[in-house]
Amino acid sequence: MSKERLIIFDTTMRDGEQSPGAAMTREEKLRIARALERMRVDVIEAGFPAASNGDFEAVRAIANTIKDSTVCGLCRANDRDIQRGIDALKGAKSWRIHTFIATSPLHMEKKLRMTPEQVLEAAVLAVRYARNACPDVEFSPEDGSRSDPDFLCRVLEAAIREGATTINIPDTVGYAVPEQFGEMIRRLRERIPNSDKAVWSVHCHNDLGLAVANSLAAVRIGGVRQVECTVNGLGERAGNTALEEVVMAVKTRRDFFNLETRIDTTQIVPTSRLVSQITGFVVQPNKAVVGANAFAHASGIHQDGVLKARETYEIMTAEDVGWSTNRIVLGKLSGRTAFRQRLKELGIELESEEAVNRAFQRFKDLADKKAEIFDEDLIALVAEGDKASAEERWRLVTMNQASGMGERPHASVVLAENGTERRAESDGDGPVDATFKAIEKIVASGAELLLYSVNAVTTGTESQGEVTVRLARGGRVVNGVGADTDIIVASAKAYVAALNRLVSKVERLNPQHAL
Ligand code: KIV
Ligand code: ZN
Question: pLDDT tens digits, residue range 41-50?
Fold first, then answer.
């Protein structure tokens, strides 16, 4: 007997993009959208079209490209926002307008300065306006988990009467706890007379680390059939519900949930890698499903058990979530055709022949230093190249550093600034510190370093190091990523990439911050 479906709604490019420094360009969003489509996500929330022309264009490009997922745009509950959403999305094969307004006493009074009656009216008019143009309309009462259930019943019943096809209950500040949240939704569905005319959904934030648990309780107790989530749990503050965790929980425990999703789970890890590369948000090693250690058995007892019978300590397989893909390698002798074919299989489509040539050259340079090139290496080198071509003011030409026990580290760096080479040297507390100081002598950005992290792209000491640098200046926060077999060079590349983003004219917006 076929099971009921759980709709997976991805908001990596809207809510996830609100993480500090995670804002993406149109091209980056398109790459992620294609990966989500390949993963067979049901609904892709592509952005907030009214937030800026940049986000409008990104949503429109995604709407015109994606064929196998519904493309959605978020709009506040007013005609202007919704019209922008309609204009951005109407070229899509399948599209959805998602409109929202806050319903909690705190948000209505302090943020919106509206009475509950005014909020109710705005919700009704918004859904009506959207439904006149689009058959698929989602309505969200923002801060739903802290809203008065009686008022929620009135607003949601009215929204469904106006034609909302999905009702999404957000736990906007991550305040909910699982049983209570599931129960609240069950009661709402029970009390609202027309509740069966809409699909019910949840959207949970992770401030108490409960986003996935709350979403699953809403599925199990509340009977919702859509979960909103992001790849790697990306999102503002502590993030959102992690897509990979919900999907694998439902799949692994199908005996309990009795549901199925449409997701091709083998695409989970490649998509996670792509999102991490593009946003500069590194996945913690012990993160469920997509963390580097998720399937690594370190203790002798576990290793012994797994070797005898995998199921002793593994409830799902690494291959099932796409970990095996990094075994497919290219090497020094691989030609352009194999390179291009592998990029295609990874869903990477470079815009022009020139971009392919540049990427191939970087691949050859890397193959000179590293015997085997893994998928992760390819993703890293393409991501790096994209940034470079799009917004390069400074380019790392060469660098040297010397350090040793008892010696003060010293670095010298040559950067090309709009084609002119400039050199600087510096000491530092460590080789990375010396390198960044030398770069700053040339650039004098005055930016504050918020984050520095190093990760191995693949396993083994021959792996490339992937460095993320987060810089802030004048309220703008950006991430830069660099990869190299030498982690000091990777650090310099990441720092320069972040600097280029800081001064870039390429539009990159955190949608909600722009409102
Ligand atoms: O967290 C939230 O409330 C949201 C809504 C707009 C769905 O992101
Ligand atoms: Zn949210």
Answer: 999 999 999 9
